[in-house]
Design a protein that fits this description.
The complex is a heterodimer of chains A (233) and B (357). Chain A is mainly alpha-helical. Chain A is 78% helix and 0% strand. In chain B, 25% of the residues lie in helices and 36% in strands. In chain B, helix 5 packs parallel to helix 6. The chains are: A mainly alpha (233), B alpha+beta (357). The interface between A and B is medium-sized, with 23 and 29 residues.
Chain lengths: 233, 357
């Protein structure tokens, strides 16, 4: 069973993937929540445009998204320079760039899930909270947010899964540097490109399946628990 | 306490143009569905912003479109009990009750919790989930939740409409206690004459967004004009009475109305308590001679003073029984057979079980 032994380099890829996906999921959550709220509740000029923009990564070929990220967030890109100068945050050819690419690719899925759950909230409950003295911010914190938790959890898990599997945009934007930007998917791809790499590709594939299944089961458990708490009247 | 409401608002084809004042107690907004009752109460609550109008409570300007004043809903401190209880599904009954209390700050006295929970009989439900409650229990919790926010005014939008008769009967006594004990002015929306007769001091009748009548409950609800708004089934008279005593063996209560004594079944009010009775015109029989061997316990002697033919061809007969007006709805055939004309002496027969109280 020697072929099952995972090498250090492979461990690095696995841990990097987990880190990239987790960071992508957590950092995009506040933005996804805000955008979802805006799209579900807001009435403003350009809403259709914003909706289209958010969904763009879902429709564009990942390579195109990766290339656009390279233009915008690369060393000399307008946003890339801005972040590097003011926050010391460099994206190009770093794991942070991989996280950014994954976050952008997973963003529409997360927004969609949260938006649907916001639209399902009975606004009459929010009116009731208002008549009881809760300001709009408190209504959101004490009524809306608890009721959309299942949607938020679902959105986070979908985003995590998407980030784990992201390949095209990541490799275009930050390349495939072992230990820095070589995620699980990229590592599997690399194995398939070299002679005798089948065993390594197989090992990582099995691990990939296990992680995906674990995430799925975990999300199901959380969703069931949350749904039981907020079951509709 | 004084409440002044004026509102003009256009909702599609529907125009609301209504105004009323109240000086405390229960004011009923009464009318058929679609008459604008709910829009008007939402304007008072601030959930609907009218094109123009004013809401004044005790001299405080809550909203005034001309002065560009609009107090946001959450700062009005107007309790609102909705038709559906709207309890928060993610909070227990106890936390639902405590919700508004928290925002009311220190003005909500701590001792109120026990008193209000006790008044509404919901002490045994506190740890439950709202989903596990019956309709009547949910509505009681909703009332408690609104009260615990220490409101200056309580708005109730058909709080009993979604409940069956048994549940209604279960909640009405709590509403009466609320009216008598809490001392908070209430605006009560309803389309049920029985409920309004029982609870309200003043009635404002709305029709197609306009106020068609307003005044003391007994007066407004007894006027034949109200029958347009109430519908045929419930039209009748509302009488003010005082409980004289109860025959516990037969569960019969004697109520004095003016000079007359009426016997009513299943009243749970002590002697001396004032009571409003609703006698539907369709429940009243007329006879030209005193009937013998009849199960109905209330036979009132009186004189016909008006006869009016309704749109559907039936006849609304008003009888003066020693100062008390009784209305009876009969067919034109009966009117001719009994030769009823104003001034004719008749007996009005009312079954004890047919009187709403």
């Amino acid at each position: 069973m020697d072929w099952l032994a995972v090498s250090d380099a492979e461990w690095t890829a696995i841990l990097l993937s987990l880190r990239v996906a987790t960071v992508a999921m957590i950092c995009s959550l506040p933005f996804a929540l805000a955008i979802a709220m805006l799209l579900a509740r807001g009435r403003f000029w350009g809403k259709t445009l914003l909706n289209g923009l958010v969904h763009l990564p879902l429709i564009l070929p990942p390579v195109v998204t990766g290339f656009l990220l390279l233009l915008l967030f690369g060393r000399r890109g307008p946003l890339g320079a801005f972040f590097a100068d003011y926050f010391g945050l460099v994206f190009s050819f770093r794991w942070t760039g991989a996280a950014l690419a994954c976050a952008v690719m997973a963003f529409p899925l997360m927004v969609r899930s949260i938006r649907l759950s916001i639209e399902a909230v009975d606004r009459k409950l929010e009116d009731a909270a208002t008549t009881l003295g809760a300001s709009p911010l408190w209504v959101f914190a004490t009524v809306t947010l608890p009721l959309i938790i299942p949607g938020i959890i679902a959105g986070m898990i979908i985003a995590f899964a998407k980030a784990m599997g992201e390949f095209g945009a990541t490799i275009t934007f930050v390349s495939n540097i072992p230990g820095e930007t070589q995620t699980l998917s990229a590592a599997i791809y690399t194995f398939t490109q070299v002679p005798g790499g089948d065993a390594g590709a197989m090992r990582l594939t099995i691990i990939s399946v296990i992680i995906s299944m674990a995430a799925l089961i975990f999300s199901e458990l959380l969703a069931t628990f949350a749904a039981r708490r907020v079951a509709a009247q | 306490m004084s409440l002044t409401v004026e509102a003009r608002h256009q909702l599609g084809n529907f125009a609301l143009d209504a105004a009323f004042t109240s000086d405390g107690g229960v004011t009923a907004l009464f009318g058929r569905s679609g008459s604008g009752k709910t829009s008007l109460i939402n304007i008072i609550a601030g959930l609907l912003k009218p094109e123009s109008g004013r809401v004044l409570l005790d001299g405080d300007v809550i909203a005034d479109s001309e002065a560009r004043i609009f107090t946001p809903v959450h700062r009005r401190r107007f309790g609102y009990v909705f038709q559906e209880a709207r309890l928060f599904p993610h909070l227990s009954v106890r936390r639902n009750l405590a919700y508004g209390r928290w925002f009311a700050g220190k003005s909500g006295a701590g001792g109120d919790f026990a008193r209000i929970v006790d008044m509404l009989g919901i002490g045994h439900l506190l740890e439950r989930n709202p989903n596990a409650l019956s309709g009547g229990e949910r509505q009681r919790v909703a009332i408690g939740r609104a009260l615990l926010a220490a409101p200056r005014l309580l708005l109730m939008d058909e709080p009993l409409a979604a409940l069956d008769e048994a549940r209604k009967a279960e909640i009405l006594p709590y509403l009466e206690r609320l009216r008598d004990d809490a001392g908070i002015p209430i605006v009560y929306v309803s389309h049920s004459v029985g409920e309004v007769a029982r609870l309200a001091k003043r009635v404002v009748v709305l029709e197609n967004g306009q106020v068609t009548a307003s005044g003391a409950a007994a007066e407004v609800l007894s006027a034949p004009a109200a029958s347009i708004a109430t519908g045929r089934r419930e039209a009748g008279v509302v009488l003010e009475g005082i409980v004289e005593g109860t025959d516990t063996e037969h569960d019969l209560t004697t109520v004095r109305v003016g000079e007359e004594l009426l016997r009513i079944a299943n009243v749970t009010a002590p002697s001396g308590r004032s009571l409003r009775l609703h006698i539907a015109a369709r429940d009243v029989m007329l006879a030209t001679t005193r009937p013998e061997g009849i199960s109905a316990l209330n036979v009132l002697e009186g004189t016909v003073f008006s006869l009016a033919t309704e749109a559907d061809g039936s006849v609304d007969v008003r009888i003066d029984c020693r100062g008390v007006t009784i209305a009876a709805r009969i067919t034109r055939f009966s009117r001719d057979a009994l030769a009823l004309v104003p001034g004719k002496a008749v007996y009005a027969i009312v079954k004890s079980v047919a009187i709403d109280h």
